[in-house]
Structures are given as C-alpha cells and as structure tokens.
Amino acid sequence: MKTSSAKRQIEKTRAFSKDIKKLSREVATAGWKTVLRYIYAPQLNLRKLEGYDDVWRLVVKKDYRLVYSFDGNNIYLLRFAHRKDIYRLDIPLK
C-alpha cells in the first residue's frame, strides 16, 4: 500500500503491517506522526543500523523503534516494535 506525500512515497512491508497491528492505537498513531515528521523535517533522532548498508531507525515514544530504508523516491517502512524486541527481528530489505 502506498501513501503519497509531497516529497516521497511511503511503502510498508508485510512485516511492518503485522507489527503495527500488534501495537496499541496510541503507539501506532505516534509512529505515523513520527514518519510524517521525518518526511518533512528529517532532523529527528536517526541512527543507522549496524550490519546493514541502508537501514535506519527512528525513535517513537521513547521505547519504540521504527526501522526503515529509503531511496530517492520512496521510504520503505520495514519493522515497528518495542526497543527490546526490534533488534532481534528479521529485517526485510524492501
């Protein structure tokens, strides 16, 4: 599923869609707000994941992490989970 923005398209992986369904509405909403803020103001708390070439993470509500990658036209939302779990999950590459 794609959601358009002025700058880039947002594409969700199946794993991301499953992850977000497991989270509370409050955390899921905060995740979407963080993604939209990132698109328009990329000065958020970003960090590249070790062991991956082009995979990054965003902090959401202090204890949650959203893992994504991007190219010139798209942002790929890969995973979204609690910080204690996110780094143990398989990260799909687009």
Textual characterization of the structure:
The protein is an alpha+beta fold and 94 residues long. Helix content is 31%, strand content 32%. The chain is built from three helices and six strands, in the order ββααββββα. The chain has helices at residues 14-22, 25-40, 83-86, and strands at 2-3, 9-12, 46-48, 56-60, 64-70, 74-82. It has a six-stranded mixed beta sheet with strand order 1-2-6-5-4-3. A hairpin with a 7-residue loop joins strand 3 (46-48) and strand 4 (56-60). The protein starts with a strand and ends in an 8-residue tail after the last helix. Mean pLDDT is 84; it is low at 1-5.
Task: Describe the secondary structure blueprint for this structure.
Blueprint: E1 2-3, E2 9-12, H1 14-22, H2 25-40, E3 46-48, E4 56-60, E5 64-70, E6 74-82, H3 83-86
Parallel strand pairs: 2-6
Antiparallel strand pairs: 1-2, 3-4, 4-5, 5-6
Q: Structural class of the secondary elements? A: alpha+beta
What is the chain-wise order of helices and strands? EEHHEEEEH
Cα gyration radius (Å) = 12 Å
Output mean pLDDT: 84
Give a quick summary of the entry.
The chain contains three helices and six strands. It is α+β, with helices and mostly antiparallel strands.
Could you name the key traits of this structure?
alpha+beta, 94 residues, single chain, globular, 3 helices, disordered N terminus, 6-stranded mixed β-sheet
